[in-house]
Design goal:
This protein is mainly α. The chain has 2 domains: 75 residues; 113 residues, no CATH class. Helices cover 77% and strands 0% of the residues. It contains 8 helices and no strands. Helix 3 packs antiparallel against helix 4, helix 5 runs antiparallel to helix 7 and helix 7 packs antiparallel against helix 8. It is globular, with a radius of gyration of 20 Å. The termini are far apart.
Length: 207
């Protein structure tokens, strides 16, 4: 193996891997949906949490990063806590509603303060190289990125709030699984692509 081969980027996940992630994400909320009526909210929430823990063990067996596994399982645990504490089916989705509201306020507040939150997050996570200066072009880019994130959080929040107000557990499950999570992943991927392309652009040639 030569140096070029060893430096080759990892291959993109195939359709099977993507499908597994979709099933993994959908299993806990749909478990809750199916068991909420016959078992009640509290028992259904516990069942969803057990499913999440089982999936976490399977994902670790497949070699997925521990941090990602803990984060996804913790997210389900937060949802389950809402239903267990309040004893209502819709309360399973209260943490998601509050997270979207908080994220929208953070994005909007950072724009008003002229400190776009995506600039901070990208640098903290290493998406933006440490040696890249934050110039006017970066400020404009991150204003646009942060505004896009704010729009996404708002698009999540409005239907979530409506479905929560009418106690639609089915609607909340479908919305969270097939719209909110995919758009969140797509926005994260788009942010990484935009930032890496911008920070890797060659500097203008000297006159």
């Amino acid at each position: 193996m030569n140096d070029t081969d060893s430096a080759a980027p990892p291959s993109r996940p195939g359709a099977g891997a993507v499908l597994r992630h979709i099933v993994d994400a959908a299993a806990p909320p749909f478990t809750f949906l199916l068991l909420n009526t016959p078992w009640g909210a509290r028992r259904a929430a516990l069942a969803a949490l057990l499913v999440a823990v089982a999936i976490a063990a399977l994902r670790r067996y497949r070699g997925e990063p521990l941090g990602m596994v803990i984060a996804s399982t913790g997210f389900v645990a937060l949802h389950s806590a809402g239903a267990i504490v309040m004893g209502e089916g819709k309360a399973f989705f209260l943490p998601e509603l509050l997270i979207n509201l908080a994220a929208l306020l953070v994005c909007a507040g950072s724009l008003l303060a002229h400190r776009p939150i995506t600039a901070v997050v990208c640098r903290k996570l290493g998406v933006t190289p440490a040696d890249v200066p934050h110039d006017r072009r970066a400020t404009r880019r991150h204003r646009a990125l942060t505004a896009a994130w704010a729009a996404m959080w708002l698009l999540h929040l409005l239907p979530l709030a409506y479905l929560y107000s009418i106690d639609s557990v089915v609607g909340l499950t479908v919305l969270g699984t097939f719209f909110n999570k995919p758009t969140l992943l797509a926005m994260a991927a788009a942010t990484v692509v935009v930032e890496r392309r911008a920070t890797r652009a060659p500097a203008p040639a000297a006159a």
